[in-house]
Design goal:
It contains twelve helices and nine strands. By secondary structure, the chain is of the alpha/beta class. The protein has a domain of about 180 residues: TIM Barrel, CATH 3.20.20. α8 crosses α9 and α11 runs antiparallel to α12. The chain is globular.
Length: about 270
């Protein structure tokens, strides 16, 4: 990954993440590693890339994923029962990298990263060309120690905006790398109100940074993806439930390809 800078400080011009946004709105898909199996995860990633997914985020299974909805929690527990560890996650990524150069992002809680060791964890990410890491429960005020180790290994730390306050959004956006992950309070806003809220957030972000911003609305259908992409630079799709259903019914190739291709085609209309 190149560290050449242009525009604003910290903007990585030629990384795989940035290149994913060069041809319109980006589609980001999330999978839990090891659910339903290690082999299924590898195959799902390759199918998603084939369908046009621009970035793929792989979740490291954790026993207490408190920030997640029920289906993601269940996905974590299934993967743990399958013996998935951090080392096994890296083994999956190694196999993926033998077949694919798609941008890969890791999603984790701080506990697995801390116990693995920051230096060891991010060094392994660098070796396997993991492009970025998002840590769900890492407070913004405490991210510097992790960010320094990540930067040394050319790995972005993805920042999350879950606030509707301008000062907080500006603070997070100013120091963001890779892309910004926007998680709006969807229970507080619906319809036009939600669209206006997202537009307001994007205006505040653009005052501080030019890096891409992805909206996460618990997207399940193309119409939700379109709403997210009209306002921001792409959409974030949770896939464990569709992947599990596809694998359990022996229809993984067809279902995953069709589902993700429909999402990508919808984004291209934006």
């Amino acid at each position: 990954m190149s560290l050449q800078l242009h525009g604003i400080e910290g903007f990585k011009s030629m990384s795989r993440i940035q290149s994913a946004f060069q041809n319109g709105k980006a589609l980001v898909a999330f999978l839990t590693v090891g659910d339903p199996t290690k082999e299924a995860t590898i195959r799902s990633v390759l199918l998603m890339e084939q369908a046009g997914v621009d970035l793929i985020q792989l979740g490291i299974p954790f026993s207490d994923p408190t920030a997640e909805e029920t289906q993601i929690q269940e996905s974590n527990l299934r993967a743990l029962r399958n013996g998935m560890t951090v080392d096994e996650v890296f083994a999956v990524i190694k196999e993926i990298r033998e077949k694919s150069n798609v941008p890969l992002l890791l999603y984790s809680y701080l506990n697995p990263v801390f116990h693995y060791g920051y230096e060891r964890f991010f060094s392994r990410c660098g070796e396997l060309s993991v492009d970025a890491v998002e840590i769900a429960d890492l407070p913004f005020e405490e991210k510097e120690e992790v960010s320094l180790v990540a930067k040394k290994n050319e790995v972005d730390i993805i920042s999350v905006i879950a606030s509707s306050k301008q000062k907080r959004i500006a603070q997070i956006a100013k120091e963001a790398t890779g892309f910004l992950h926007i998680i709006p309070a969807i229970n507080a806003y619906t319809g036009i109100a939600l669209e206006r809220e997202l537009e307001k957030i994007m205006v505040w972000i653009r005052k501080e940074t030019k890096i891409p911003a992805i909206v996460d609305l618990d997207i399940r259908i193309p119409e939700q993806a379109k709403l997210a992409a009209w306002v921001a630079d792409g959409a974030f799709v949770l896939c464990p439930y569709i992947a599990l259903d596809a694998w359990e019914n022996g229809q993984a190739d067809g279902k995953i390809l069709q589902y993700m291709a429909n999402m990508k085609n919808t984004l291209q209309e934006c």
